[in-house]
Structures are given as C-alpha cells and as structure tokens.
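Side project, low priority. Logging it here so it doesn't get lost.
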Amino acid sequence: MSRLHPSPLYWSNVKSSRRRYFKAIASAKRTHLSDFLSSATPRSCWTAKVFAFGHPPQRFPDLPGASDPAEVAEALLDHFFPSKPPPPPLLRLARYEDYTPLTSEEISRALSKCSNTSAPGPDHIPYSVWKSVHRIKPSILPSLLDPLLAHGFHPPSLKRALGIVLD
C-alpha cells in the first residue's frame, strides 16, 4: 500500500534498506577475499589476481563468419591491411606538332657559349662537366632534353634522377 502512496518515511526506509543491502554485500566480499588471501598458495596467485583486478578484456573481437584459423587470419589481414585500389592509368601526352628534335650540334653551340668558370645552375653541375659529357657521348644530352621539348614537361624520372659522371 505504501508503494501506491509513498510518503517521505517510505523513501527513507527504502534508502536505508538499500544502503544496508549493499554494505552487507561489500562486507561479504571483503570477508571472502581476506579468507582467500590468508589461505592462498602459489597455485592460487592467478585467482587472487583475478579477484583483485577483474578479468582481462578479450584480446580479439568476435569476427563474424570466421570459424577456423585460416578465416580468422584472412579477416585480420583484410582489416589491418586492406587492399589498395588500382593506380590510375598513366597519361599519354601528345607530342607538340611543331616539335623538332634537338641535335648534338645545337647543344654543342649552346655549351660553347657557357664559361667553365661560371657558377653552376640549380643542379650544382658545372658547365665543364656538361661539356665533357657531351664531348664523350653526344647522344646523352639530346635524349635527356627531348622529352621536355616534345611534351612540354620534365619526365618524372628526371625530377628524382641522380647523375654520377664517371671518368
């Protein structure tokens, strides 16, 4: 009847009963733990650890649809190392229609105007090296510079190239 028509006395009784109930549970847990620890053996130390710290969380989440070890391994690999999308297709740029290939004579004329003692450009290669390379193998420089004139851009291989001149 008091539940249908609660009074302040009813609520104070409910609170005190609840408090006594939870105190009794905590007291029983403390008593059990102290009894267990007083009679603990080396074999029961792991059980004492579980009492003190609780159960450790699961190491791996449940994997839906993975029942055997091979399926679990496949699911983990797919999750942590997803497959990459295929790279975009390489662009083929059309050559300029009015492009004429460089000749070794044009490069010889351009290099003859450069002084061996002048400061090197952004590539830090002095003109004397360029002249020596062109004198030894005249087809190298036209093959390096032709794509720039033919397509209007530096090939990606030249942007990261490291040239070493061997004597």
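Brief comment: DSSP finds seven helices and no strands in the chain.
Revisit when time allows.
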